[in-house]
Amino acid sequence: MQPVVLRTPRLVLDLPREEDVDAILAACQDPGIQRYTPVPYPYERTHAEAFVTQVPKDWERGRHVTWGIREHDRLIGTIGLYRMEGDGNGEIGFWMAPEARGGGRLREAANAVIDWGFSSEGPGLARIEWRAVVGNVPSARVASALGFRYEGMLRRALVNPKHRDDGWIAALLAEDERMPQPWPVLEN
What confidence tens digit (pLDDT) does each residue in 33-66 have? Predict the structure, then answer.
């Protein structure tokens, strides 16, 4: 699969580049990113360099596709569709640099990725899953706002270098209306 550039009113989603290594390294020092995403720990410059090198290879294989999220040509996060096995399923994943959180940028980027993921120009997925460590309320709020339906909790299913955690799971089907959804774990 060839890399695709996606554009929204404020953002450009394209491949992470060598000049993004410092921004990736800085963002991945954030305790929230380290706690709630499967980045290496401790996160070092070599990890960011390897990530930038690996992304185009992953696109070629078509199983994992990742974009850098850019605002004014500055990398502010990453987003991707992962575990696409040719069965019509995929999983969305993302992180935003701490200074870029809020303001709807992540929802804007995610909507573009979801549109592409369900489209015939993209992989034509039937189902996109979202998973997060129980307690990652900001990520859950984004997924809920995107229309993902909460499906439950997976016991000790999510693993990162420091933890094995229970995980929330939700999904969006290609035919679902993409309106904000109530989730029992977000009530209160």
Answer: 999 999 999 999 999 999 999 999 999 999 999 9
d(CA 77, CA 28): 10
Any idea what DSSP says for residue 19?
A: G
Tell whether pTM > 0.70: yes
pLDDT digits 0-9 by tens, 8-38: 999 999 999 999 999 999 999 999 999 999 9
Q: Which of 120, 116, 114 is nearest to 145 (CA)?
A: 114
Which stretches within 30-136 are classed as H helix? 31-36, 45-61, 105-118
Residue 1 lies in a domain: no
Residues of the domain holding 65: 6-186
Is cis: bond before 184, omega within 30 of 0?
no
User: CA 92, CA 68: separation in Å to the nearest integer?
Assistant: 14
Length of the chain: 188
CATH number at residue 143: 3.40.630.30
